[in-house]
Amino acid sequence: MNIAQVAPPFVRVPPVKYGGTERVVYFLTEGLVKRGHNVTLFAAGTSETSARLIEVVAKPLWQTHFVDPVAWVTYEVHLLKKYAKEFDIIHSHIDYLPWLIAEEIDVPIVTTFHGRLDIEDWWPLMNEYRHMPVVSISDAQRLAVAHLNLNWVGTVYHGLDLEDRFYLGDGSGGYLLFLGRIAPEKGPTTAIRVAINARIPLKIAARVDPVCEKYFTTEVQPYLDHPLIHWIGEVDDIAKRDLLAGAVALLAPIDWDEPFGLAVIEALASGTPVIARPRGALVEIVRNGLDGYLCWDEQEMVDACTKVTLLDRSAIRNYAIRRFSTDRMVEEYEEVYERVIREFSIRS
Length: 348
Description:
Blueprint (H helix, E strand, L loop, with lengths): L1 E5 L13 H15 L3 E6 L8 E4 L13 H15 L5 E4 L16 E4 L10 H6 L4 E4 L14 E5 L6 H4 L9 E7 L6 H11 L3 E6 L5 H8 L8 E3 L5 H10 E6 L9 H8 L4 E3 L5 H4 L6 E3 L3 H10 L5 H11 L2 H22 L1
Parallel strand pairs: 1-2, 1-4, 2-3, 4-5, 5-6, 6-7, 8-9, 8-11, 9-10, 11-12, 12-13
Helix pairs in contact: 1-12, 5-10, 8-11
């Protein structure tokens, strides 16, 4: 198949540090190329790929002083329209904007939603384009828009090359880990309180987005003088791998319905148990009592910090590698592409 992969222009593919969607797009693109498909990646110009790269912007937007990100994504849609005749299918990872050209091109567009869907501002547009084929990254992600009767063509869990990128750790570092991004819905202050009450050191390896700087300053930073709390900041893949391997557990006390959670599967691939709230996709990813513990209450999380040491880290790693592999993700997307192309040709 001739396939277009359309990545957000904010972070390079693959990301050097934080960047979940771009990481998934990278492994999907590389996997499709390995399986003999002719793939074109629309992404920031510093991206690295085995596919053909069409540059949307010279540098990732997060590395520049951009004013209007919508203008750049709109330009990306313009490029899609320009090259559309070359593809059998376009796979969008930039949400709804490509739908606006769907009737102007003779090629199907399938969209994977990577974020939350409880954004009511989106709903009128989603309702208008509810015939467009869309993919969820967990079954839980669909619940917020169940009333819209969207054209779901599959749920495809993210996949990464977990076996090669992570190794089985023994938790010998003796610390808990909070990994990813500082935001209220991610629950960093809950993680801090849990660590302090459990009397276990906590390492925080996370990015602070500009929009959350005030939250970080007022809510998180006051805790950083505590002797058990260690701020590391945003880390690269090598540092992340070692941090996960040495951790007793990953703390993910989310306060929202997370649509997936890449940090969670990366922890599991390291054999590191996860302590999280049973919200969103976490109940689909973490097997309670086997891969970690899903707890509503902070005291339950504190108690779980001791119980996780009894879990089988090798079994956790094997489960993650089997269930969240790149090969599995690529195969499922191939099935989605074939279905969408077939249904598009029937309608045409």
